[in-house]
Amino acid sequence: MRPQHTSIRTFGVEEELLLVDAASLSPLPVGEWLAERSPHTTGGEHEFTTELQQEQVEVVSPPQTTLAEQVEAIRTGRALADKAVAEAGGRIVALPAAPGPVRPHVVPKERLERVRDHFGLTALETLTCGFHVHVQVHSREEGVAIIDRIRVWLPTLLALSANSPFWGGADSKFASYRYQVWTRWPTAGPTEFFDSVEAYDRLRSLLLATCVPLDVAMIHFDARLSAKHPTVEVRVADVCLKSEQAAVIAALVRALAETAARQWHAGVAPDPVSVPLLRAWSWWASFHGVDSELIDPATGTPAAARDVVQRLLEHVRPVLVEQGENGDVESVVAEILSGASGARRQREAYARHEEIYDVTADALVATHDNAWTPGG
Q: Looking at residue 354, which CATH number applies to its domain?
């Protein structure tokens, strides 16, 4: 039995956010300009960084230890970015994909221009905003053990976060079309069962040797070891409309990681589900979200989304209870299941007048809605 670390794991988030014109709500290509404003507007606690396209920015929040802190960190990051981009006549909105037609502009940096040239239309068409959660690990061995044990639950997290039904001005019929666009990248998606750091590093080296990914940053696994921090980075989720939903997704990721680490320390083996099966589970979650059925990891067959999510909550409940987060997490998850998902809200906004503008306008309100309080 391996020694168990008992300290609470820190967790941090990175939100990719869409930049829109304050008047027209059309995508606004000022990402590089906004990232350069970061040192002057955030006071060092948050950071703005460029992504592939000028119409988006990534807001990196500092690591936190509680759900309440995480909600506040996300709200602060959104407010700082919104205030900064206002100088360029813009707003930030938590949409994983632009609902209407858009021709993105690649950020004019050498590496990103190489990405554009190397990947062609895939790069030119990719304007997607994901939600990345970093959870502290005590060793790379522990990190790989966590990745092996959480992989079967990542489709359920994707379904809970699903917030991108519109693409190019039309309803894609998917709850998370962002995930469909994102998995066009050759290294994106579920990973195989590793069982060791050596196997993880070997696959990463073999991928880099193909010269398909340009560098290690393009190893786009749904969950991976961070190349910069002692963390596991879970990258499967859509960016969420509401800050409390984002924070709860992050809390679930941390609880999954802690549960997995305890299983590893106790010698409990993971379920080595194959990558083709996990891809099918993720596709299903991307299509349906939480409005229908999900694949139950226990059986590998469809079951009511509410029941699968409940099994996820049961799986991590001991950790959530220990950390005093169970009530808040279950409350927000219940709201998502009862019709407050991002995908459902976008479709309801569109249905009022069948105008894409209304989708972005309503998402803007949700992005900056700070009414929810932990324990409330």
A: 3.30.590.20
